[in-house]
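User: I'm putting together a small comparison set for a docking exercise, and I want a reference complex before I start. The sequence is below, and the ligand is sulfoacetic acid. Could you produce the 3D structure with the ligand included, as structure tokens?
Assistant: Of course. I'll restate your input first, then give the structure tokens for the complex.
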Amino acid sequence: MSIEVKNMKLHAWIAEIKTICQPDAIYICDGSRQEYDSMMQKLIDSGSATPLKKRKNSFLFRSDPSDVARVEDRTYISTTSQDEAGPTNNWVAPAELKGIMKDLYKGCMKGRTMYVIPFSMGPIGSPMAKIGIEISDSPYVVVNMHLMTRVSSKVLELLGTDGDFIPCLHSIGAPLEPGQKDVQWPCAPIEQKYISHFPEENLIWSYGSGYGGNALLGKKCLALRIASAMAKREGWLAEHMLILRLTSPEGKQYHIAAAFPSACGKTNLAMMLPSLKGWKCECIGDDIAWLKIAPDGRLHAINPESGFFGVAPGTSYATNPMAMDTVRENVIFTNCALTDDGDVWWEGMEAELPSHLIDWKGHDWTPESKADAAHANARFTAHASQCPVICKDWENPAGVPIDIFIFGGRRTSVVPLVYEAFSWEHGVFLGATAASETTAANIGAVGNLRRDPFAMKPFCGYNMGDYFQHWFNMGEKLGSKAPKIFYVNWFRKSQDGKFLWPGFSDNSRVLKWICERVDGKIGAENSAIGLLPNEGDLDLSGLTLQSESIKELMSVNVDEWKAELPDIEAHFATFDKRLPAKLKDQLEELRKRLG
Ligand code: SAT
Ligand code: MN
């Protein structure tokens, strides 16, 4: 062991896991640059990482074709009673799940090194931060954790002898027999994959996958599933939200937290370059927000992560120039295509198709090839400090005061571009009924409509009925200092299947309207579903949009909305007795307004 472990609980845990998993060696990570470099060198030597000639200190990884996204079907919230996990989570009783997993963990690190990764979610030592220790047998996980979280020996110092931490156990589930040659991306078959959470004891056990949120346990597992359960107990919020600061031409700052499902453009919005003159957007986070009521009575948010694990396909200088500049150097790419001159490529990166590539599976690719060159859930991992529009307050331990919440999803029909909730209660209803078409961020069918309340369906670590009630309770505590709530949909299409709204930098037009509403500068039109922009209030200057397109984009079709009611009812019915009465009231009010 390179570093001495003084913490009693950690010492015992390492010894226990060593006995079960039987690694060849143990390495305690210190988070240093030298550690990153030597780990990456090992990954190059073993053939897992390809250094990119065209991007300084950047590397390409190709995963096993079976291990390309989060596995929601194999993700568990294991509480004593199933009712605590609720209808949105897979559940197996803790003793049974631990039994199954202990069998899998037995000897699972043979032939490999067990890495002990001390990390902080949130600035080290900040009152809002949480300490985790990930034990993993994947060096790919170590280098990604270096960028996504604060890995440091300082975390161990902070723990002292008896400080507490969240244990996060991870194995790719691919032991090596003596002399057995390793593969490029070792992992276990799908039926052996388990992403398990024990929120009653703040514990995470992950087995069989090396990809993204399945393996980088600080992210969805700790910062959302475990943290949401802690937040419920302790009276704060852990949300699947980007955080941004918008500054108006007059210099007024607005802080926005917005929840959209995975792969629905959170990173694009968080780093947007507004098309409206004089407006400025700065990024604080692109995926997760932890929000607490500060002594000033307002909700303050921090980004617990320190990097971006963004979807590569579709990212370009046209759609997200700041992300493109963020990934110029010091980046880990996963499942992108490789160009002949040693750079990465993905669908939507540029208009021109290269004549030849190596695709994400390692095969030759030409424009005639039928399959995509990059996987639809190909990712980049980059440190947040590399983003040109990172906000100077992104690591402020006190967080930023949130003025505005935005919910949304991917809906090709029915839902207008933007509307405002009538009240906090109505806003919670909008969050609770949010729906989106599924994306490649989860293994499974793409494009199916599903209710994804608060974009938290895959990430809420307890009964979601109680989660809704928690939101009502927070609203009561915040009173008049509660952020205003809005709902947006960038993805509405015309009858002939074309996107009606240009999106990206032009989303600043929607944000401007939202800010003007918050300031009480403009009125709004009452509709059955919420408050809509009055004609002429949405700043469309310089846009060449047909007036019919705008009408279609903003239209609220009462019949289409009535047709949503049975689905909302069925969705609510799944929560049974845990559904807050206030949500039933909101549904009845919507029904009345629709007439
Ligand atoms: O794989 S992750 O869970 O980290 C990414 C996502 O689904 O948002
Ligand atoms: Mn996400």
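The longest helix spans residues 218-234. The chain has three domains: 8-49+74-235, 238-305+393-594, 308-386.
User: Thanks, that's exactly what I needed.
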